[in-house]
Amino acid sequence: MGDPIDELGYVAVDMKDSVLRMRKMEVFGSNLEQPDLNARVCSDSLMRAAASYGANKGAYRIETEIPGLGTLLKGVGFLPEGKKFVCDLSKIVKICKD
Questions:
Q1: Are 67 and 33 in contact (CB under 8 A)?
Q2: Where is pLDDT greater, at 59 or 75?
Q3: What does the alpha-carbon distance between residue 95 and residue 98 come to, in Å, rounded to a whole number?
Q4: 3-state DSSP helix/strand/coil percent for the chain, to nearest 5?
Q5: Is 94:56 a contact under the CB 8 Å cutoff?
Q6: pLDDT per residue as tens digits for the range 16-66
Q7: Please, which pLDDT band fits residue 3 given cuts at 50, 70 and 90?
Q8: The whole model's pTM is what?
Q9: Contact criterion met (CB below 8 Å) for 72 and 35
Q10: N or C terminus: fewer CB in 10 A for the chain?
């Protein structure tokens, strides 16, 4: 993710059994465990981009074990499940049927 001048951050994902897994996320210059406004906006945008990608690839759920990220994601419907935070993709993106 970037603006016209700088790279702002990234999210790395993979899929396993129709579950999109956010493996790593970084918002440059911010701490996701103690997020400032920039970290909140960027992490939300990155999560939504990842969710859209997952939905287009057939995922039905999104999860993460990224430390500190669960606190940011609770507001959009993520719930704790053991060490992970999980959410149905349908709570984040509209899933269209062909």
A1: yes
A2: 59
A3: 10
A4: 30, 30, 35
A5: no
A6: 999 999 999 999 998 888 888 888 899 999 999 999 999 999 999 999 998
A7: confident
A8: 0.88
A9: yes
A10: C
How many residues in total does the chain contain?
98
- Among residues 73, 67, 75, the alpha carbon closest in space to that of 31 is found at 67
Is the CB of residue 66 less than 8 Å from the CB of residue 27?
no
Q: How many CA atoms lie within 13 A of 22 on its CB side?
A: 32
- For the chain, state the CA radius of gyration: 13
Q: Which amino acid is at 56?
A: N
Among candidate residues 40, 64, 61, the one with its CA nearest the CA of residue 51: 61
Tokens of 59: 């995922």
Ordered alpha helix ranges (H), 1-98 = 37-56, 69-73
Q: How confident is the model at residue 85 (pLDDT cuts 50, 70, 90)?
A: very high
Cα dihedral across residues 38, 41, 44, 47: positive or negative: negative
Cβ atoms of residues 46 and 25 within 8 Å = yes
